[in-house]
Amino acid sequence: PILYGYFRSSCSWRVRIALALKGIAYDQVPVNLLKDGGQQSSAEFKAVNPMQQVPALKIDGITLSQSLAIIHYLEDTRPNPRLLPQDPKKRAQVRMISDHIASGIQPLQNVSVLKQMGERKMEWAQQCITFGFQALEQILQHTAGRYCVGDEVSMADLCLVPQVANAERFSVDLGPYPTITRINKALLELEAFKVSHPSRQPDTPAELRA
């Protein structure tokens, strides 16, 4: 498998965690979202993903984009360990939390949107994340065990950790979100989350390396 990604991309990070948890070895092709006006806009990368976004994963003779679609494919083809619970209610909760982050928070503060916001980008990112986290904290109080849904790591956790890192990068006060903070801390102790961390990637700039 070949993963096209960017060290700081939260969507790429979700996929790196999934690959690590499932023990899938892969090669990385870095796509710098800021350099050269954004390498995702190059003709070469457009041929990989016409949406000009990371991640993209070449695996089993196909190329997939969209992090949750990639994680679902990995789950269907390499089901151990499970990232979606077998219980239908818990499974629905995992999908709900994943979508809440992947559709409701992250896209509003990604690189392309922030570029449009100009000088207001920090304020905009903080507003989007704060609004989303207020809802997420409330949801997690009903679903969480050790992790987002019960005591098993799920796709929801793969979405949570990168989004908390984004919140920290945009100086969002995490004080009002004790459940989010507790779960994030527990997850960051797991090896798959450590090895996939943005500070430990091939394209991580020297000054940001762990």
TrEMBL record:
Localization, UniProt: Cytoplasm
| The gene coding this protein | Gstz1
PROSITE patterns assigned: GST_CTER, GST_NTER
User: Per the similarity annotation, which family is this?
Assistant: Belongs to the GST superfamily. Zeta family.
**Gene3D superfamilies, sorted:** 1.20.1050.10, Glutaredoxin (3.40.30.10)
Question: What does the record give under GO molecular function?
Answer: glutathione transferase activity; maleylacetoacetate isomerase activity
Q: What InterPro entries does the database record attribute to this sequence? A: Glutathione-S-Trfase_C-like, Glutathione-S-Trfase_C_sf, Glutathione_S-Trfase, Glutathione_S-Trfase_N, GST_C, GST_Zeta, GST_Zeta_C, GST_Zeta_N
* Descriptive protein name: Maleylacetoacetate isomerase
Organism of derivation: Anseranas semipalmata (Magpie goose)
